[in-house]
Design goal:
about 15% helix; about 200 residues; Fumarylacetoacetate hydrolase, domain 2; alpha+beta; four-stranded antiparallel beta sheet
Length: about 200
């Protein structure tokens, strides 16, 4: 199982981090060792003083596919959820400055939260899904899938050009604006529409 993440998929987040808008989706991979085990907290690693939360809509691949045409992408997933891509922002800035890969800042152990799943069939329009993240009961990220530069089916098609998608793979579709730092003692809660899909403590 692999976790494929999309960067810079919301214009407001691109502006927030003063990045350039890409011509194609920006992709990176998290290993399975980055997953936070069920009912476990997120532990701030000792190598960073600036860990940021990034909430994202996620999908779980349900069949094997390669070079998938966009019109067939909908056949390759049945479930949608929420995830957090924890990022060591200070380390990432240093790596980017030196033209180096991001993996140490994005793919470290315990850097990936995956929520419970909702059947795709429960949504009337997959390009109009509201989702939000609360930090200590205050809304910090609040967006809608309509604001994605590349929608879910486009991402599946694009990703499958480079990586064979397998059953159980997870795609993180990108984060909107509002990312910020977490501290010991914080509590994060994620919602799709009004349904809470996760509650996570920071230690």
């Amino acid at each position: 199982m692999k976790i494929i993440c999309v960067g810079r998929n919301y214009t407001d987040h691109i502006k927030e981090l003063e990045n350039q808008r890409p011509e194609n989706p920006v992709l990176f991979i998290k290993p399975d060792s980055s997953l936070i085990l069920k009912n476990r907290p997120f532990f701030i690693p000792e190598f960073s003083n600036e860990i940021h939360y990034e909430v994202e809509l996620i999908i779980k691949i349900s069949r094997v596919g390669k070079h998938i045409q966009k019109k067939f992408s909908h056949k390759y997933y049945d479930y949608i959820g929420l995830g957090i891509d924890f990022t060591a922002r200070d380390l990432q800035a240093q790596l980017k400055k030196n033209g180096l890969p991001w993996e140490k800042s994005k793919s470290f152990d315990g850097s990936c939260l995956v929520s419970e799943w909702i059947k795709k069939s429960e949504f009337e329009d997959l390009n109009n899904i509201n989702f939000k993240l609360e930090l200590n009961n205050n809304i910090v990220q609040n967006s809608n899938s309509s604001k994605m530069l590349w929608k879910i089916d486009e991402l599946i098609s694009y990703i499958s050009k480079y990586f064979t998608l397998k059953i159980g793979d997870i795609i993180f579709t990108g984060t909107p604006s509002g990312v910020g730092k977490v501290n010991i003692g914080d509590e994060l809660s994620g919602f799709i529409e009004e349904k809470r899909l996760f509650n996570l403590k920071v230690k």
